[in-house]
């Protein structure tokens, strides 16, 4: 399992899932968020609990067997015992994933503190044994250790948000933005001092202000969490370059060679945004709009009603960068990454609706109209000069 973005994990909910069809992790997580929304009231809304760090990132390990999907779900919780039990019960109310029937059964709620106590005892025994039997270290090793500790001691608190940072932030024209304090420590250990951490779930004002004055490189973990941070940073800060740790690795565990290789591999943020279907400048413009401007734009762009089942599927797809093509009966006839929807649309017949975690552009509108598509649903739309009669567009 990957990193859990939560300050203190008290419990872990372990559950089994079975779906009567082939689905992936984003489908399962989307179904959990979508079908528990509004079920428990504002205080136990799972999306908000995750945003505020009171539950961690939901993990799902899935495998496909005989046309079905089975696997395990883990939900880390920093809530109390009663609230955690309520969240666990809510998981069992999820009865569909995408178009397929599903069943989630909670196996147990584990108190992680008991596991930590057992680990502490075992680890203390190991350390004591090692301390009693290990030879005195070589002088060269001692010198290298001291040098490493001196570099690590350079970490400081920067700005009003008191973010973990190296000593060269003010002096450097270029800075590296990472996720957390451990990432800062690792880069300092390897002599990179112009580094600063976001330090939480929200993008701090200190980072936004620095990005206006400095050339910035965003350096994140090689996992789904890193992708989500990139998307949010592109919307809220003026990022110049993007790079990631190798797949499945975290910045805090990289060697010096891996760090330097990742930094050499950085790409312009605009190029990355275009690749994943984001418009960086447009995203920042919307993020900085006043409430009145947003209300006016929403009123102007309000789309005609679309079927409820389409909106439900749209909620499940959010964050997956996936597009689905449906026939008139609501059956999924194609499912591809958003960037491949053009190619796939040319290949399929009987397309009635396109639902995607992507941007509706004029080019896609024209392609959909050529296939007599009735509904086109995406996260947002560009300025459209021509919308054919009979094509309903929803952006939300």
Structure description:
The structure is a single chain. This protein has three domains: 104 residues, Alpha-Beta Plaits (2-Layer Sandwich), CATH 3.30.70.2690; 150 residues, 3-Layer(aba) Sandwich (Dna Topoisomerase Vi A Subunit, Chain: A, domain 2); 105 residues, 3-Layer(aba) Sandwich (Cytidine Deaminase, domain 2). It is an alpha/beta fold. It has 15 helices and 19 strands. The strands form five sheets. A five-stranded antiparallel beta sheet has the order 2-3-1-5-4.
Quick recap:
The longest helix has 22 residues. This protein folds into three domains: 104 residues, Alpha-Beta Plaits (2-Layer Sandwich), CATH 3.30.70.2690; 150 residues, Dna Topoisomerase Vi A Subunit, Chain: A, domain 2 (3-Layer(aba) Sandwich), CATH 3.40.1360.10; 105 residues, Cytidine Deaminase, domain 2 (3-Layer(aba) Sandwich), CATH 3.40.140. It is α/β, with parallel strands linked by helices and 396 residues long.
Break the fold down into its secondary structure elements and pairings:
Layout lengths: L10 E9 L5 H12 L9 H6 L7 E7 L2 E10 L3 H11 L4 E2 L2 E12 H22 L5 H14 L3 E3 L4 E3 L8 E5 L2 H9 L5 E3 L7 H9 L1 E6 L3 H13 L4 E4 L11 H9 L2 E2 H7 L4 H8 L3 H11 L6 H10 L4 E5 L5 E6 L3 H7 L5 E4 L2 E2 L1 H9 L4 E4 L1 E2 L10 E4 L1
Parallel strand pairs: 8-9, 8-10, 10-11, 15-17, 16-18, 17-19
Antiparallel strand pairs: 1-3, 1-5, 2-3, 4-5, 6-7, 11-12, 13-14, 13-15
Helix pairs in contact: 1-13, 5-6
């Amino acid at each position: 399992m990957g990193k859990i973005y939560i300050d203190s994990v008290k419990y872990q909910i372990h559950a089994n899932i079975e779906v009567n069809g082939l689905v992936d992790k984003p489908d399962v997580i989307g179904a959990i968020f979508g079908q528990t929304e509004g079920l428990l009231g504002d205080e136990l809304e799972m999306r908000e609990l995750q945003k505020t760090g009171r539950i961690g990132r939901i993990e799902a390990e899935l495998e496909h067997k005989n046309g079905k999907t089975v696997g395990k779900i883990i939900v880390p919780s920093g809530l109390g015992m009663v609230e955690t039990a309520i969240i666990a019960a809510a998981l069992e109310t999820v009865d569909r994933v995408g178009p397929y029937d599903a069943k989630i059964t909670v196996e147990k709620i584990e108190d992680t503190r008991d596991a930590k106590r057992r680990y502490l005892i075992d680890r203390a025994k190991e350390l004591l044994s090692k301390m009693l039997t290990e030879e005195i270290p070589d002088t060269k090793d001692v010198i290298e250790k001291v040098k490493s500790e001196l570099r690590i001691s350079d970490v400081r608190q920067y700005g009003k948000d008191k973010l973990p940072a190296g000593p060269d932030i003010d002096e450097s024209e270029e800075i590296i933005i990472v996720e957390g304090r451990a990432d800062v420590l690792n880069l300092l250990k390897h002599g990179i001092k112009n580094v600063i951490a976001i330090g939480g779930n929200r993008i701090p004002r200190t980072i936004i202000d620095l990005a206006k004055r400095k050339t910035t490189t965003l350096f994140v973990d090689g996992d789904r969490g890193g992708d989500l941070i990139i998307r949010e940073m592109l919307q809220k800060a003026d990022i110049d370059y993007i790079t990631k740790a190798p797949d499945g690795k975290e910045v805090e565990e990289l060697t010096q060679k891996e760090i330097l290789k990742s930094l050499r591999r950085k790409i312009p943020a605009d190029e990355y945004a275009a690749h994943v279907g984001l418009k960086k400048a447009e995203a920042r413009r919307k993020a900085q709009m006043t409430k009145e401007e947003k209300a006016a734009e929403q009123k102007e762009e309000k789309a005609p009603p679309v079927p409820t089942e389409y909106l439900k599927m749209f909620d499940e797809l959010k964050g997956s960068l996936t597009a689905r093509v449906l026939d008139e009966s609501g059956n999924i006839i194609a499912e591809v990454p958003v960037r491949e929807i053009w190619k796939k649309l040319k290949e399929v017949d009987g397309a009635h609706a396109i639902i995607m975690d992507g941007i509706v552009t004029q080019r896609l509108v024209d392609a959909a109209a050529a296939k007599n598509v009735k509904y086109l649903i995406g996260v947002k739309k560009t300025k459209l000069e021509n919308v054919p009669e009979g094509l309903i567009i929803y952006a939300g």
